[in-house]
Design goal:
By secondary structure, the chain is α+β, with helices and mostly antiparallel strands. It is about 35% helix and about 25% strand. It has one domain: 2-Layer Sandwich (Beta-Lactamase).
Length: about 150
């Protein structure tokens, strides 16, 4: 609104305190950074897999264990990397995980390496858990190869 001379006589506005939102955003950014550091540096193979079974992301330890490059693994069907006998056992547990009937499970399975004619990587008990944004998380502790 203006006075007779055309000068503003009052202002109307809205102030919002977004301090809490900013604090949450900063916390999320710190957590993402911590996750990224662990994901990239840990000696355990980790795969982020979409609900439809596509490998979304892999860490360097997994790529080294399976002898694949990052681009070679991206968007592959994850179960194609698992020995067929072990993949069959995994399917029912995956469905329960996706359906929310369980938060995690552990299973022993063998992975197929790219080199040496698809040699197998025996693994220890593997925890698998529901991730966010439609992913599941596979943690792999690789042994020697057979």
């Amino acid at each position: 609104m203006r006075d007779e001379a055309g000068r503003p006589c009052f202002m109307q506005g809205l102030l919002l305190d977004i301090s809490e939102q900013k604090r949450k955003e900063e916390m999320l950014q710190k957590n993402e950074s911590k996750f990224r550091t662990i994901f990239e540096r840990v000696a355990v193979g980790i795969a982020l897999v979409s609900i439809d079974g596509q490998l979304v992301e892999s860490n360097p330890a997994l790529r080294e264990m399976l002898r694949y490059g990052e681009e070679e693994l991206r968007n592959r069907v994850f179960n194609e990397l698992i020995h067929p006998e072990d993949a069959a056992i995994d399917v029912d547990l995956d469905q329960e995980l996706i359906a929310g009937k369980r938060d995690h499970y552990q299973i022993e399975k063998r992975f197929i390496r790219k080199d040496v004619g698809g040699g197998l990587v025996p693994t220890e008990r593997l925890p698998r858990s529901r991730g966010s944004r439609g992913t599941t998380v596979h943690h792999m502790h690789g042994g020697g190869h057979h």
